[in-house]
Each structure stands twice: as C-alpha cells, then as structure tokens.
From TrEMBL:
Signal peptide span: none
Pfam families for this protein: ABC_tran (PF00005)
Coiled coil: none
Subcellular localization(s) per the UniProt record: Cell membrane
Membrane topology qualifier: Peripheral membrane protein
PROSITE patterns listed in its UniProt record: ABC_TRANSPORTER_1, ABC_TRANSPORTER_2
Name this polypeptide is given: Cell division ATP-binding protein FtsE
Keywords annotated in UniProt: ATP-binding, Cell cycle, Cell division, Cell membrane, Membrane, Nucleotide-binding, Transport
ABC transporter domain ranges (all copies): 2-227
UniProt source species: Ferroacidibacillus organovorans
Lineage, highest ranks first: Bacteria, Bacillati, Bacillota, Bacilli, Bacillales
Length: 228
C-alpha cells in the first residue's frame, strides 16, 4: 500500500531531512510517526503526497509511483490520498459544505452524487447542523472535523495526517482520534505524525520513530517513547 525504498531527502539549503528511509505500510494499517522536532516527520509525510520530491529513492502510495508522477497526474493521485493538516487549511470564504464539496466539484461529480456524499461525510464527523457556517465561526475541533470530512469525501484508500491534534485540547484530540479509528475500522490506511503521547500510549498501534532522518524504531502496538 505504502512503500519507501531507500529514500533520501536533502533540501535546497543542504539540510539532510531524511537519510535512507525504507518502510512498508500495509493496506488497513494504522501507523503513528513519532520523533523529536526537526527529526524529519513532516518531510516523511510530505513525500507521501508529493508535496516534496525525494532526492533519491522510490515511493509507492496506493498504486502510484509517487516520485515518477507527472505534474498533471498529481490531482488524480491526491483523490486517492486524503491529507489532514495541523492547521486545517480550510478555505476561509467557503462554508463547511463548500469546503467539503470542492474536492468533488473539481472531478465533475454529478450534483446528486455531491449532495449525497457531502451529507454522508458531514454526518460521519457530526457537522450536519453546521454545513452552512464559515470556518471562522467554528471551534478548532470542529474545523479539524471539516478537514477530515474533506479528506474523506473522495473515499481515499489512505489518510495521511501531520499532527492533526497539534492545535487541539485533549477532548477534541480524542474526538479526532475516535474518528480516525472509525475510518481505519472500515479499511482505510492511516499514517499520522504526532506529538500526542497520551493518544499513542492509550490507543496502541504501530509506531515508527524517526530521529535525525532515520527510522530508529518500528514497533507493532508500540509506545510514544519520549518525555515531551
Ligand atoms: P519534523 O516534522 O520531525 O519536525 P521536518 O521534516 O519538518 O521535521 O524537518 C526535518 C529537517 O528538515 C529539519 O532540519 C528542518 O529544519 C529541515 N526542513 C524542513 N523543511 C525544510 C525546507 N522547506 N527547506 C529547508 N529545510 C527544511
Ligand atoms: P463519547 O464522546 O462518545 O461520549 P468519551 O469521550 O466519553 O466518548 O470516550 C470514549 C472512549 O474514549 C472511552 O473509552 C474513554 O475511555 C476514552 N477516552 C476519552 N477521553 C479520554 C482521555 N482524555 N484519556 C483517555 N481515554 C479517553
């Protein structure tokens, strides 16, 4: 499902962010990515949805050879990979409904399909009542649930999340985690970079730890393993 083979990433300024990453994540797995700040977690995540390109190595996600994709194939690939961000990245002038329907409109889904699918995902994240509100009228937890609805609307086989609970309090973090678990229970692969020790230690899943650009630990039902 997700595979990296000897992946290296050096940024333009010479910073070596990842140094020889090889990993396989099977369809349906739930995998946390942990490690200190600056370790390379975000870079690892960004390579998976082609926000960054590797300096060297091969990356496969959901059947796409990510580093070989042509620019015009990227939108198609992103329909199969849902991405959730720490800062939500919602379109501020658009309503909740519009933020979620946007991804379906660009693929020219029928009006009926759009209405049905948006209603389904808003129901799933518990925001049916807030469909016509603007992002700034919502709490942080609600905004992140919109971000998750948007990521899910195309029924991706993989959800990639970079610190999705990083701006949220513990209760909202739990709500987000429970949503991810439900999505994962339905067979969607989840890769989640996180600093949330409570979540990692209470909901045991695979843990990949990255330090200084290398995988230093890879455990089934692992633990957070850092004090911060
Ligand atoms: P983490 O998510 O674990 O905090 P990052 O992947 O963001 O780590 O960063 C890994 C290293 O790459 C850090 O040294 C960081 O400063 C550097 N880095 C990240 N993004 C860029 C960039 N766009 N340009 C240059 N260096 C970067
Ligand atoms: P709901 O929102 O459906 O009422 P709860 O928030 O009460 O559900 O919690 C559902 C599950 O998540 C429970 O099993 C509970 O133990 C666990 N949980 C909720 N909040 C925390 C927390 N802060 N720390 C550890 N476990 C939690």
């Amino acid at each position: 499902m997700i595979e990296m083979q000897d992946v290296w990433k050096e940024y333009g300024n010479g910073v070596a962010a990842l140094s020889g990453i090889s990993v396989r994540i099977a369809q349906g797995e739930f995998c946390y990515v942990v490690g200190p700040s600056g370790a390379g977690k975000s870079t690892f995540i960004k390579l998976m949805y082609r926000e960054e390109k590797p300096t060297k190595g091969q990356i496969f996600v959901g059947g796409f050879n990510i580093e070989r994709l042509r620019e015009r194939q990227i939108p198609m690939m992103r329909r199969h990979i849902g991405v959730v961000f720490q800062d939500y990245k919602l379109l501020q002038p658009l309503t909740v409904y519009e933020n979620v329907s946007f991804a379906l409109e660009v693929i020219e889904a029928s009006r009926k399909t759009i209405q049905k699918r948006v209603a389904e995902v808003l129901e799933l994240v518990g925001l049916t009542e807030k469909a016509n509100m603007l992002p700034r009228e919502l709490s942080g937890g609600e905004q992140q649930r919109v971000g998750i609805a948007r990521a899910l609307v195309n029924k991706p086989s993989v959800i990639i999340a970079d610190e999705p609970t990083g701006n949220l309090d513990p209760d909202n973090s739990w709500t987000i985690m429970k949503l991810f678990q439900r999505v994962n229970d339905r067979g969607t692969t989840i890769v989640m970079a996180t600093h949330n020790r409570e979540l990692v230690n209470s909901v045991r899943k695979r843990v990949i730890a990255i330090e200084q650009g290398r995988i230093v630990r890879d455990q089934e039902r692992g633990e957070y393993g850092y004090e911060d």
